[in-house]
Specification:
The chain folds into 3 domains: about 5-270, Distorted Sandwich (Beta-galactosidase, Chain A, domain 5), CATH 2.70.98.10; about 320-460, Alpha-Beta Barrel (TIM Barrel), CATH 3.20.20.70; about 460-530 and about 555-660, TIM Barrel (Alpha-Beta Barrel), CATH 3.20.20.70. About 15% of the residues lie in helices and about 35% in strands. The protein has 13 helices and 38 strands. Strands 5, 6, 7, 8, 9, 11, 12, 14, 15, 20 and 21 form an 11-stranded antiparallel β-sheet that branches. Strands 27-26-25-24-23-22-30 form a 7-stranded parallel β-sheet.
């Protein structure tokens, strides 16, 4: 299947349509390191990007094809704003506030269209807008190009469904290759182009509303990314196993939408050091602001999870499974350890029925809610997106009145316009009932957690659940030190760490009912600091955690929302160290790939004059052969301290710094 035919024609038209008379508009970042040029040569609007004089993006065509409007866009006028500053409150984000500074260029186009560019010190973004007199318009397509000046190295998460490439769960590892050697296959975002010397461009998007998400197809000849989108669905089928909606047929256009609106932001984040990548905020700052108002009712936290560990309890006098006794045990475990939530994953209603209003007879849900309330533990219910959407009013009304705190919603597995509309519809309704959400089986985040702060987690990540079935050739520790630099730029992850069964590379194999993580115990513990996740799951069973009291005590006490996040040292694909502050305490976590390494920790980020007691979990002396081997130790730390920590192959570390008395 050749995905390049249409986009190659667009690239050629740019080359042949050059004109010396075209006016070029320029925009610089506040620090003047990034420069954007835009022109409308022969009716094709094209942009280019430089960083400190180095070309990152050669002239690249962009366009929005609106039915009934001319196929050629022309720039009629331009207006600029310089050094626009915003201070954004960021509840449940990786830091409490985000400061945003940018320069802006607003281009008026023909036929009531406009194009807005912004240049930040951390990247470039643009979006189209229309101001039509029509109530609705049809968007036939969007043209997107990213033309590179050389054979850059790329990090691409390809579709996992070549036959229907836009209908996927957005879960894949990264293929690293020069763009000239890339596959003829769509990839989803985020995606990275590496220019060498630390300089990277990451392609993202924000504020996708009533519009499909962007995929890219590598052009190995032109050395470019060309955009593609899912067509708007017009008919669905539903699976017999869980009533999940699947696209049966589509329209020949990508969206039917309001005639007066802005469109999603296309973002080119620019970083010169890998440590800048996990804390790049462009997706968040470009998203629509909070639409739900008061956020005081939203309580992020940790959750004891049932599905990954297959309800694997031991030493109990009842048959463990999807029943009231089992969930009471999970609630007791959560209450004992100060864990805020227990989730009832698939099975609490009969999935094949497509009816989440009828609870299986083995569960007395109201009894469990009351039992949890007495112990300070809230309950969260799993549901399929299309099932919740069909029963949205009744489900939100019934379960919010019952005392359910939120929904984990699964199996959307698309980002066409209808899927995006469903995501917004569910978020709006859940907020009215003061229920928070975890979007699993979902496309990559695009700022929805700013627009709807009760939307805490997103999957769209190759998470720990894959260890139940993945091929042994898949390199999970490598993914764990790559994903935070790429996928996490877009938003928090529903990765679900916390395995207490751990294996070295040579010993690991997929196990479904008693799954085992790749890498060491401390690798798992480090993930709780490194990965953004306001709704943070403990994936293993209460029995496993009860056998590992030291580790459980640390994990149960870790925050899920922080005041500040920094990356002291990191190298994408090799290792990462993350430090986060909650109040006066700091939490530091590190991960490595399958290569053992020593990291030198510099604590100069700590305040002057404060001494901390550090409690740390590090890989044990024999963790290279026995992945569960770890050592817990304590040490006094201040901002002048320098510590060397050894990480075993597939290893990591985790520590808590508490101000001394």
């Amino acid at each position: 299947m050749n995905f390049k035919v249409t986009t190659i024609i667009v690239a050629c038209s740019l080359v042949t349509a050059s004109s010396a008379m075209a006016k070029v508009y320029r925009l610089a970042s506040p620090d003047n390191k990034i420069s954007v040029s835009i022109d409308d040569t022969a009716g094709n609007i094209a942009y280019g990007i430089d960083y400190e004089g180095k070309v990152l993006v050669k002239p690249s065509v962009i366009d929005l094809s609106v039915e009934g409007l001319p196929s050629t866009a022309k720039i009629k006028s331009a207006k600029s704003r310089n050094v626009v500053s915003e201070q954004i409150e960021a509840p449940f984000y990786r830091q409490k506030q985000v400061n945003s500074n940018y320069n802006e260029l607003l281009l008026k186009l023909n036929d009531n269209r406009s194009l807005e560019f912004r240049a930040y010190n951390s990247g470039v973004a643009y979006r189209f807008a229309i101001n039509s007199k029509k109530d609705s318009v049809i968007i036939n397509d969007e043209v997107f190009q990213l033309n590179f000046p050389s054979d850059v190295n790329t990090y691409l998460p390809y579709t996992t469904n070549p036959g229907n490439p836009t209908n996927i769960s957005f879960e894949n590892t990264y293929t690293v290759a020069p763009i000239s050697k890339a596959e003829d296959m769509p990839a989803f975002l985020p995606a990275v182009a590496d220019f060498g010397g630390g300089l990277k461009l990451t392609l993202l998007e924000s504020d996708i509303e009533s519009f499909p998400g962007l995929f890219i197809v590598p052009d190995t000849v032109a050395l470019a990314f060309d955009g593609m989108h899912a067509k708007r669905p017009d008919a669905f089928t539903f699976s017999t196993g869980n009533a999940m909606a699947h696209v049966k047929s589509t329209e020949n256009y990508i969206a039917k939408t309001s005639g007066n609106r802005t469109f999603p932001w296309r973002i080119m984040a620019i970083t010169t050091n890998d440590a800048q990548m996990p804390v790049n905020d462009l997706v968040y700052v470009l998203a629509s602001p909070n639409r739900i108002g008061d956020t005081s009712w939203i309580k992020p936290g940790k959750v004891a999870w049932d599905w990954w560990n297959s309800w694997g309890l031991k030493g109990v006098d009842f048959r463990a499974g999807i029943n009231t006794d089992t969930y009471k045990y999970y609630i007791d475990f959560a209450a004992k350890n100060g864990i805020e939530y227990v989730i009832l994953d698939e099975g609490w209603y009969k999935s094949s029925s497509g009816d989440m209003l009828t609870i299986v007879p083995e569960i007395d849900l109201q009894e469990l809610v009351d039992y949890g309330n007495k112990r300070g533990v809230g309950l969260v219910l799993w549901a399929v997106f299309s099932v919740l959407d069909r029963q949205l009013d009744e489900a939100c009304d019934r379960y919010s009145k019952m005392g359910i705190k939120g929904f984990k919603v699964d199996f959307l597995d698309r980002d066409d316009q209808e899927a995006v509309d469903m995501a917004y519809r569910i978020a709006e309704k859940a907020a009215k009932h003061k229920m928070f959400l975890d979007y699993h089986g979902f496309y990559k985040p695009s700022g929805l957690n700013r627009t709807f702060p009760h939307l805490l987690n997103f999957e769209g990540v190759y998470g720990l659940e894959q260890c139940k079935w993945q091929d042994a050739k898949v390199d999970h520790p490598l993914y764990d030190v790559t994903m935070p630099f790429i996928r996490m730029m877009a938003g928090p992850v529903d990765y679900t760490p916390g395995a207490m069964r751990n294996a070295t590379r040579i010993d690991w194999k997929p196990v479904y009912y008693n799954p085992v993580s790749m890498g060491t115990r401390c690798h798992q513990m480090g993930e709780y600091v490194v990965f953004d996740a306001p709704f943070l799951m403990l994936c293993d069973s209460p029995s496993s955690y009860e056998d590992e009291a030291e580790c459980t005590e640390y994990l149960a006490a870790i925050p899920t929302v922080y005041d500040e996040t920094i990356i002291p040292t990191a190298e994408m694909g090799n290792y990462i160290v993350t430090a986060r502050r909650s109040g006066k305490d700091w939490f530091v976590g590190g991960l490595t790939n399958w290569s053992s390494r020593d990291v030198d920790l510099d604590f100069s980020f700590l305040p002057e004059g404060v001494t901390y007691e550090a409690t740390m979990f590090v890989d044990g002396m024999n963790a290279h052969r026995l992945a569960t081997d770890y050592k817990k130790k304590s040490q006094t730390i201040d901002r002048n301290s320098r510590i060397k920590i050894h990480m075993a192959p597939g290893g990591g570390f985790a520590m808590r710094l508490t101000p001394g008395k």
